[in-house]
């Protein structure tokens, strides 16, 4: 008689976390990750579908059921190999990618119960590999004699560099800041993505022979045409890091930050390590963060950890319309962040050049706009003020025009984003490819990884077919 399968747990296996009252005053990682037993317990929830829709929801098509099956059997080395066949940064993506709107959103089990915790298991496999020294740099193929310049060391640039180096090309990454990693290092707080994890992945690239040149501002110190004189191809993955502001009165007062500047000071200048670094940063008592995305949550939770007595999220729509991950909103609430919803700032008030309050207007929701979210409409005469000494603006980013201005023949759209083929990353400029946020605008880490890998395949095909190093011969 066949043994009945064990009933499926309708809920995800809980992931251990620091208690809110403790973590709100430190920068240590919030989620502590699965144990082997917890990972296998969660893997047992997978239905191992014949037509896994979760894979179609992943921007790089990780063979999700295959790696989960390997976890079920306790073969974590195999699980790592399966994931890394498609995703080069599982420790990163398992922590910061919005699985709930990608792979997990299409999970068959999720139609009836909570979806399988794909991201949690991806993180477990990567962390297990690091603990057990199972992370090895692949041995590159024989040298092709071809060389590629990568501009930017964020996720798209790292992915492109990894694949090209593995194929035997000489790869050089040019990074404008003094540390490689791009948004993974300067944009995401330590409590969500510890810097040692990114450093570990960078070390793998170095072992593969990739050269990293920091403090190299392409478009200023060196231009794309100069790179093309020295390299067979160039990939641009500089991201979109110029902050947006509201254009309201008072944005020039002392105490007003863009979220980009605020988080960069905390992350790159080590403000999170108060004992070792005396970082020049404002540690506000009452902090308002304008916006409702992940960056707004990061800024608000960071301000709290720096010592703010109160941190307030000001968002013009309701919580249902917030673009931030549900997990990040949940964590922010647990930590005591105040949510001032259906409110929009109209001016920042100051005294003696310093911020003293934020004047807002109450909003109400109307019909859906082009994004599918309901429009926020102002209520006349509903002005109110929030006493604050610091305002952080987290309203998204624009593209940095530095490269496009210096390479005037490089085609961009009306917003300054580089025009590139979706499948190859090829631009209108011979030998030049682009991918990630500099092409699409702000998107996910794994989408940027996918763009970098697509470009790497196209670059490899192009430079492998060259008979000489002359520019303009790529296809």
The value of Rg in angstroms is 23 Å
CATH superfamily of the largest domain: FAD/NAD(P)-binding domain
**Helix coverage percent:** 25-40%
Task: Give the overall form.
Answer: globular
Beta-strand residue fraction = 15-25%
**Count of beta strands:** 16
Kindly identify the CATH topology of the largest domain: FAD/NAD(P)-binding domain
CATH architectural label of the largest domain? 3-Layer(bba) Sandwich
Widest β-sheet, arrangement of strands: 3-2-1-4-16
* Number of separate structural domains: 3
Number of helices: 17
Query: Which structural class best describes the helix and strand composition?
Result: alpha/beta
Distance between the termini: 62 Å
CATH class of the largest domain: Alpha Beta
Round the mean pLDDT to the nearest integer and report it. 92
Q: How can the largest sheet be summarized?
A: 5 strands, parallel
Low-confidence stretches: 467-475
Written overview of the protein:
It is a single chain. The protein has 475 residues and is α/β, with parallel strands linked by helices. It folds into three domains: 20-131, Fumarate Reductase Iron-sulfur Protein, Chain B, domain 2; 147-241 and 399-464, FAD/NAD(P)-binding domain (3-Layer(bba) Sandwich), CATH 3.50.50; 242-397, 3-Layer(bba) Sandwich (FAD/NAD(P)-binding domain), CATH 3.50.50.60. It is built from 17 helices and 16 strands. The strands form four sheets. Strands 3-2-1-4-16 form a five-stranded parallel β-sheet, with helices on both faces. A five-stranded parallel β-sheet has the order 6-14-7-8-9. Helix 2 (36-43) packs across helix 4 and helix 4 packs across helix 7. The protein is globular.
